[in-house]
């Protein structure tokens, strides 16, 4: 009896699907410039080799691991699919590293393409990001400071710096996501220790007290969080800002904004 029901339990239970299972990528596995998708592959929510990921796998992984609405997960898949040069119905994690499609300069944890491999975590870049997080709790204002700080550093140091309108819009979703998806979407705060562990180890920080959110993450949660990041960015830059402006972001449907990170 137990043997017959175990496969079913594994299929439907997030606890058995990978929260307590983790292993780093092997020599033939591929990974992305996106720490969260890498994390889901390391835990086995996505295929561990990171290859030929389907829409259903993407939707199920984001829902089971993070309680993200499957419609939002499907939008993420649509964008990821544009990075696959074969133009098929799947994508592989390393496809996401194709520069200036979804991947962009001024990452929070990766070097710009001008300086090297955008797929690999870069401790120096991430150390800069961490300087904008004040105290043990990160809020959206700190996330906005980190986003803007990385853009300014990239502009000052990268002679080929570029940021498309799509990439610019994605940076808002990425900056909001690590706060409101990993943390509390109501208070819009997250423990700094959780975020640091997640970025540096590409592992869900369960041992630090993190748990899968009880409430699902919906489109309106993403939109309102992005709007708050944008508001803080305008305050930090001043009213004459052009980087990440409302003018740019209104050209994209908000619900289709990238929320990976």
From TrEMBL:
InterPro entries: Chloroperoxidase (IPR000028), Chloroperoxidase-like_sf (IPR036851)
Alphabetical list of Gene3D superfamilies matching this protein: Chloroperoxidase-like
Disordered: annotated span: 234-261
Transmembrane regions listed in the UniProt entry: none
Keyword tRNA processing: no
GO molecular function, one term: metal ion binding
Keywords for this protein: Heme, Iron, Metal-binding, Oxidoreductase, Peroxidase, Signal
Database matches in PANTHER family: HEME HALOPEROXIDASE FAMILY PROFILE DOMAIN-CONTAINING PROTEIN, STERIGMATOCYSTIN BIOSYNTHESIS PEROXIDASE STCC-RELATED
Family note: Belongs to the chloroperoxidase family.
Protein's name in the database: Chloroperoxidase
Lineage: Eukaryota, Fungi, Dikarya, Ascomycota, Pezizomycotina
């Amino acid at each position: 009896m137990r043997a017959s029901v175990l496969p079913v339990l594994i299929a439907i239970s997030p606890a058995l699907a990978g929260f307590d299972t983790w292993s780093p990528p092997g020599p033939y596995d591929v990974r992305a410039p996106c720490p969260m998708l890498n994390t889901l592959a390391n835990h086995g929510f996505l295929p561990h080799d990171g290859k030929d990921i389907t829409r259903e796998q993407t939707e199920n992984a984001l829902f089971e691991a993070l309680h993200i609405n499957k419609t939002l997960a499907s939008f993420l898949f649509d964008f990821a699919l544009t990075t696959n040069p074969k133009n098929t119905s799947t994508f592989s994690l390393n496809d996401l590293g194709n520069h200036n499609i979804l991947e962009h300069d001024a990452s929070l944890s990766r070097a710009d393409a001008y300086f090297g491999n955008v797929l690999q975590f870069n401790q120096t870049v991430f150390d800069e990001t961490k300087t904008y997080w004040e105290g043990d709790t990160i809020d959206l204002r700190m996330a906005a400071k980190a986003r803007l700080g990385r853009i300014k550093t990239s502009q000052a140091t990268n002679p080929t710096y570029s940021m498309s309108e799509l990439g610019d819009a994605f940076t808002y979703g990425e900056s909001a996501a690590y706060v409101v998806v990993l943390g509390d979407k109501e208070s819009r705060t997250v423990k700094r220790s959780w975020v640091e562990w997640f970025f540096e180890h590409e592992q869900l920080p369960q041992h630090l007290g993190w748990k899968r959110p009880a409430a699902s993450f919906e489109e309106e949660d993403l939109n309102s969080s992005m709007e708050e990041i944008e508001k803080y960015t305008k305050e930090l830059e001043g009213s004459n800002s052009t980087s990440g402006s409302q003018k740019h972001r209104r050209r994209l449907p908000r619900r289709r904004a990238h929320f990976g990170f």
